[in-house]
Write a structure and sequence with these properties.
The complex is a heterodimer. Chain A is mainly alpha-helical. In chain A, about 75% of the residues lie in helices and about 0% in strands. In chain B, β1 and β2 form a beta hairpin. The chains are: A mainly alpha, B mainly alpha.
């Protein structure tokens, strides 16, 4: 590009040496109202070139660069979305598994509890049955023993009467020298009893 | 000392034939510094995007990241303004944004700013205006009059509103062209004037040399401001292009 301090255009006059102040238009630009931008002789070329350049730029942008970038961005968005969806799916799966595992544990615990309760109930029942059996046996034995004791006592009590009569007879004999009749003795013993 | 306006002078370079356009208009196709600036600006964009998108990968490289950043920036802007149909107009908006941005930025490095040429900004503005008109008539046909008759306005207000709408519509290419032209022209003139103060003051002796620090600082500050303006004006041009397209694309429905 042409350096701004060295005008090299063939038709241009040397830069006006009119100081560094703005507002004084250079003399050589003339005809266009002061600003070089108003030199209409250069407008046509600039406009045509600008349109050509812009058409090339636009075509390349819309046909090549933007589709490439759009594709990459869409692919990335898709990849991220699918990865997120996959992660969410796996998470859901894990959650479901955790739930089922928890349910299984709960079930197992319930089963264990029921088994324990059953065993306890069975043991209790067995114990109660055995105890009842033992109680019954003891009661039987007790009853038998009581009967025996009662019969022994009865026999003993019966013997006591005889002994008393005999003893009384012997005592009467010894004291009086005469034997008392058995009926008297028995009556006396009964009265004493 | 060169005049601050000298930087805008057109200098003919390579001589090319003059062609006659239909209608008998003679156009000298010779290359000059303005055309060269445009060629370089467009060439840089094309070269950059050709390299950046040549191996477009889902995980982007450095250049692709920049290209995608620009792409997304303008794409989001166009989508925000035009809506779901923005993809159709995005290539135009993106091309014009990049082209104006590239010409503006080149003006900060080269000695010539193509967008400080009225011929260039007028052409760009008229191009946008014509595209808006063509798109508008293709999509809306006779309903284009709604552009000048805003809905929800009491009928007696239309006598006032419609002329204003018509005037503002046809002033769009003018403001579009003059805004870009004026910003570039003004910025570069101001830079040049401040830069001119430095040697002028420094020539006055010791006090002048100390005084010259002030315009020097001014030039540094203005240069950074001009970079902002170079970007901002390209963005404004793209935004307004979207706004004007939106007016005719979504004519009548408020979205």
């Amino acid at each position: 590009m042409a350096a701004e301090d060295t005008p090299t255009a063939p038709g241009a006059a040397p830069a006006a040496l009119d100081g560094a102040h703005a507002g004084t238009a250079p003399a050589e630009t003339g005809g266009g109202g002061g600003l070089p931008q108003f030199e209409l002789q250069y407008w046509g070329g600039q406009i045509v070139w600008l349109l050509l350049i812009f058409i090339v730029l636009y075509t390349l942008m819309s046909r090549v660069f933007i589709p490439r970038l759009r594709k990459v961005k869409d692919t990335r968005a898709e990849t991220i979305a699918s990865a997120v969806a996959e992660a969410r799916r796996v998470q859901d799966e894990a959650d479901a598994q955790a739930t089922s595992a928890r349910a299984e544990i709960e079930q197992a615990r319930a089963r264990a509890r029921s088994v324990a309760a059953e065993a306890k109930a069975k043991a209790n029942a067995e114990f109660a049955a055995r105890q009842a059996e033992a109680d019954a046996r003891i009661a039987d034995e007790l009853a038998a023993a009581e009967t025996r004791i009662r019969s022994l006592r009865d026999t003993a009590m019966a013997s006591v009467g005889d002994i008393a009569v005999e003893t009384a007879g012997a005592m009467v004999q010894r004291l009086t020298g005469t034997a008392a009749s058995a009926a008297d003795l028995r009556a006396a013993a009964k009265g004493a009893a | 000392m060169a005049s601050p306006m000298e930087q805008f002078e057109i200098h003919k370079g390579l001589q090319l034939p003059t062609v006659e356009l239909p209608g008998g208009i003679l156009v000298d196709l010779s290359l000059n510094n303005s055309i060269m600036a445009m060629l370089i600006a467009a060439g840089l964009i094309i070269a950059f995007f050709a390299i950046a998108t040549s191996r477009a990968a889902v995980v982007p490289g450095r250049m692709q990241l920049i290209a995608e950043g620009l792409f997304s920036y303008i794409d989001d802007m166009a989508h925000g303004i035009i809506g779901h149909e923005s993809r159709k107009f995005f290539p135009y908006v993106f091309s014009i944004f990049l082209f104006v941005l590239s010409m503006n930025m080149l003006g900060m490095f080269l000695s010539f700013t193509a967008t400080s040429q009225l011929a260039v900004t007028v052409t760009l503005a008229l191009m946008t205006f014509l595209i808006v008109l063509v798109v508008g008539f293709l999509r809306n046909g006779a309903n284009m009059y709604k552009l000048f008759v805003p809905s929800g306005v009491p009928w007696y207000m239309l006598f006032l509103v419609t002329p204003i709408e018509i005037i503002s519509f046809f002033l769009r290419p003018v403001t579009l062209a003059l805004r870009l032209f004026g910003n570039m022209l003004g910025g570069h003139v101001a830079l040049k004037v401040f830069a001119g103060f430095i040697p002028a003051l420094a020539g006055l002796g010791a006090v002048g040399v100390v005084g010259a620090v002030l315009p020097l600082a001014g030039v540094v500050a203005l240069t950074s401001l001009e970079f902002l303006v170079a970007f901002l004006q390209a963005f404004v041009f793209a935004v307004l292009t979207c706004v004007y397209l939106n007016d005719v694309v979504n004519l009548g429905d408020h979205h």
